[in-house]
Every structure is written in structure tokens, then in C-alpha cells.
Amino acid sequence: MFGRSAKNEIDSLVGPTARVRGDVVFTGGLRVDGEVLGNVLAQQGADNVLIVSEQARIVGEVRCANLVVSGVIEGPVFCTDILELQPHGRIMGDVHYHTLEMHGGATVTGKLTHEEPGEPEFHLSVASGDKPGDPQSVRQSVFRANSL
Hints:
By secondary structure, this protein is mainly beta. 0% of the residues lie in helices and 52% in strands.
């Protein structure tokens, strides 16, 4: 799966006959063989791996460190370490990744964005009490790209 000695143990499983509605938050390793209709989010600051098997489908946002896709993801993907797209893997959504390994036959319908660890993301927010749309009320908040 990965050429590194990263933790590749599977701690949790969504079985092939399971259909989960709602967000799934995990630590360690998660393998999805069924369907998840919701976001799949790894806990921050932990080494983790998400495996989406060939018969699996996720409809929602995916955020994790390491990701192996053999099935289908419909939604944006944020992968802070290694993203591996297997021959039957399909992602329909924008993909943010650090390292990408894409096998022949895999497809991405969306924008691919390479991000280095520690690259900042910029978000705009309105301070409480200020009027939306007032240029003086807009504050810029900086978040690290590798924080999930």
C-alpha cells in the first residue's frame, strides 16, 4: 500500500452491506467496504489511513493523512500525506494532496491542488458586532493547511 512504515492497521470497518448516514470521525485506520452518506474525517494530529475499497462509495467530504481509493468518492478530498488512486478508483470533486500516486484507469473529475505541509489557507471572517459587507469588518484568519 504505502512504501513507508506508517501505521497501516485497520481499527474500524464499514462492512460491505452497511450504509452509514452522517459524519464518520475516526483515528488510526478505517476501511470502508460499504456506503457512507456523510463526511469522513480523521482526528487531527494523528497518523491515520482511510481505505476505500472497490465496492465502496462515500458521498461527502474526506479529510485524512493517508488515503487509498479503489472505489468512489463524491465530494472534496483533503489528504495531508499520501493519496493513492488504484486502477478502479474515482474521485468526483476537488482534491488537495501532498503526495499523489495515480494508477492507470483511475479518474479524478475536479481540480487537483498540490499543497506542501504547512502551507497556509486563508479564510475571511466577520468579527462579531460588525456589519457584514463592511470592508472594515473583514478580518483575515490564517489556518495551517495540514490542520484538518
